[in-house]
Amino acid sequence: MTIMAKVLVIDDSRVMCMYLRRVLEGQYAVEEWLPPSAMEIGEYILATAPDLVLTDYQMPGCSGATVARMVLKAKPGLPVIVITANRDEDVAATLRKFQVVDILHKPVGAETLLAAVGKAIGNA
Length: 124
Prior knowledge:
Blueprint (H helix, E strand, L loop, with lengths): L5 E5 L3 H11 L4 E4 L8 H8 L3 E5 L7 H11 L5 E5 L4 H9 L4 E4 L4 H12 L3
Parallel strand pairs: 1-2, 1-3, 3-4, 4-5
Helix pairs in contact: 2-3
């Protein structure tokens, strides 16, 4: 039996979560989570041990930059991919500062998503 890499999806949009799950399931184990507060991200990452975090950039009370910063603090080297409609280079620079491995722009196609996830996890 093959063990699938685990992708943790952090997004406040049910529609986006369903889309991401539909695209990734079968190739990856997908878990969805919306943190009650940014302070809980590190503990959750350590407890659930995902192979990749896939997060939205803009969520109530918690940005993709905050997620990336908390992941970096809790588990350096854990890849983070941010999905955003924002194309501002300052936002991209901030995300890279927190070692985000890829920034995908909405609307993100299935092939682009699968390629980015595979590359980040090392299956490309």
